[in-house]
Amino acid sequence: MEYAAGGTLREHYPKGTKLSLETLDTYVTQLANESVTGTAQLSIASGKLTVKITMSGLAPNSTHIPHIHKGSCEAQGDVLYSLAPVAADASGKGTSTTVVPNVSSIPAKGWYVNVHLASTKSDLDTQTGFDPIACGNVATK
To answer: Cα Rg for the chain, rounded, in angstroms?
Structure first.
């Protein structure tokens, strides 16, 4: 499966360029073959943050690196927490569960979960690998 047949975001926009949501949505849709969906559930217990990511519509048997970042999908910031890779099965359904120690709360806003195209941490250093395939703002109820 060829991702980003029209080129990656980094090939079209320098790192740090602020893109409109329409541009990002169009690109994510292209990467995901118009079918990536998912959820990230965050919970706190005993000073530990548990993050459970469930996705579908991924490339079969693919792996993707997720992070919790500071900011929002619209105003992206630095990585706060590295998460366990999302591993897709043969049908494109993927999951990841990570427990992060020493976290006492989840902010009402200011965090987002970004799932990258990269399959390994070293792939994040490449233009294509760093590109997001999914992004979601963390919102508490």
So the answer is: 15
